[in-house]
């Protein structure tokens, strides 16, 4: 994978590019492991992958004029245009899935296929999604991983959850990244997507970890009901971080 | 010098094992710990104390805003201030303040503050806090990354609403109003003095300097720890070439308890101070700072030990709290000395004296308050004589104010 820059109307955007074949735009989640390339490399074995970093994430500059869901949606379409892609496949994980679904709803004729991996964007009162904004570093693995211990190690390469250096880096990263994400996810990660899902025309694959404790699999069924003809793939022994826990199975489901 | 007697209004009935058994004192505090019948007495006691301080010679009496918080029972400080306006006559009403970004539309604050100013005869000091992350983000749902922007817009709207004589249209991002034209208007012109509680960000320093507002540091960390922050404020005042370095540009909140002797202070007050630090400050650290609420620079300077699981149960013994300056406690002379260190060391013209602490009962609090008013304030009153006439940062009441009339007992002839 190569890290490159593309200029857009508002702000230069950093993106990973690699692989060959059908163009696929992948949108990352709200936090954690966005720098981990394992999943992107696995995707690149089957697709020509473009994975832009949302402003405020990684090397992508923050932009104060991105205020709300529409801004995020249109900005990401600006990125697709700037990359010169016509009717690509869109895939998104968690927050990225929410953005991808919005993009497909707002421009239904410009997406060839849509894959949503444990996307945010709906809210079921009987199954409230935990508040990621108030979690402490050591509390994350429980909500994100099937194997919490392995997940904690994945999040703290070479350190651990009580290491002050790790905590500081974590908090700084959180402030910047979740600060940007807060515009579409805080305090409830729902911005009216359910009223727009009917507009999606592309074939849709929904992928869920069976043991997701952040956005439980019941949300997968809700998305499936709201998007007629969509396919739901539930992967066993996996939680919210299913692309990192069951990489091969997720890539297989996408293909 | 100006001394404000300040009441956070803590709930005094948190159980002994509160920290061990509860997630947080704030945001998701267990509602079953609240008893509305007891609250009837608690509120009235606390208002009595504020009014008592107003009679004893404090310059101001102060209230503030918190939500879903067992150490601050005032979601609406204006309601308390309205009550206080009637049973006090010359003391300033320091509402520190109303979280202007939380009101929809924010002209509500302009209206209520104008009402308070009219009812009290121009005694209002208006506080404009950004608000804590707990209140603003977690309790009231404001998006952390947009909190400051929303605050900036609300401030602009309120200041214009107070001053512009003609109705105007306001096209903000967060508030759109076709006819801004508040009734009533404040007595104090161009508007009541403004105090801004801050937590050390340069943006807030500049905001106060540019608008001639008092920068107020309301920490529970005491004056020794507070020095670093206040020094950086004064450095900024110099850097920005402010026209003067009036101490009234700054205020500081400090826990204070006074007794006849130092030993007596410990005997009378230690358990109540302990109640505050060991129960009331049991805030789940995940609520302290929503991502996007603070700047990255501030986080990089911050203390991180609170983010580990072990940190939640540290004890705070009396002697340590006194030595570290969290609490200024002791005989009138001890308190005078340390208050003088605070006032000169931080260069603050306003001290918000937190004298009702934790579960301190009314009689003890009245004793401490009276000793402070009678034996400490007169010794400190005339510090900063060169700025004695600086009235920019304090309320300017009407000379002829009315008092609540006595009510007729018989039928009124008309």
Quick synopsis:
The complex is a heterodimer of chains A (255) and B (414). With 255 residues, chain A is of the alpha/beta class.
Description:
The complex is a heterodimer of chains A (255) and B (414). Chain A is of the alpha/beta class. Chain A has one domain: Rossmann fold (3-Layer(aba) Sandwich). Chain A is built from nine helices and eight strands. An eight-stranded mixed sheet of chain A has the order 1-2-4-3-5-6-7-8, with helices on both faces. In chain A, helix 3 links the parallel strand 5 (89-93) and strand 6. In chain A, helix 2 crosses helix 3. Chain B is of the alpha/beta class and 414 residues long. Chain B has a single domain (2-387), classed as Luciferase-like domain (TIM Barrel, Alpha-Beta Barrel). Chain B is 40% helix and 13% strand. Chain B contains 13 helices and eleven strands. Chain B has helices at 18-21, 36-56, 77-87, 107-120, 133-139, 147-163, 202-211, 222-239, 262-280, 296-301, 318-323, 332-346, 362-380, and strands at 2-6, 60-63, 92-95, 124-127, 168-171, 176-180, 194-198, 214-217, 250-258, 327-330, 350-354. In chain B, the strands form two sheets. An eight-stranded parallel beta barrel of chain B has the order 1-2-3-4-7-8-9-11, surrounded by eight helices. A two-stranded antiparallel sheet of chain B has the order 5-6. In chain B, strand 7 (194-198), helix 7 and strand 8 (214-217) form a beta-alpha-beta unit. The longest helix of chain B has 21 residues, at 36-56. The model of chain B has no long low-confidence stretch (mean pLDDT 94). Chain A binds chain B through residues 64, 67, 133-139, 161-162, 164, 167-168, 171-172, 174-183, 186-187, and chain B through 137-138, 141, 143-146, 149, 173, 284-287, 289-296, 299-300, 302, 304-305, 307-310.
Any idea of the CATH class of chain A?
Alpha Beta
CATH topology of chain A: Rossmann fold
Query: Major sheet of chain B, described briefly?
Result: 8 strands, parallel, barrel
Number of helical segments with 4 or more residues of chain A: 9
Beta-strand fraction estimate of chain A: 15-25%
Rg of chain B to the nearest angstrom? 21 Å
Number of strands of chain B: 11
Q: What is the overall shape of chain A?
A: globular
Sheet/helix structural class of chain A: alpha/beta
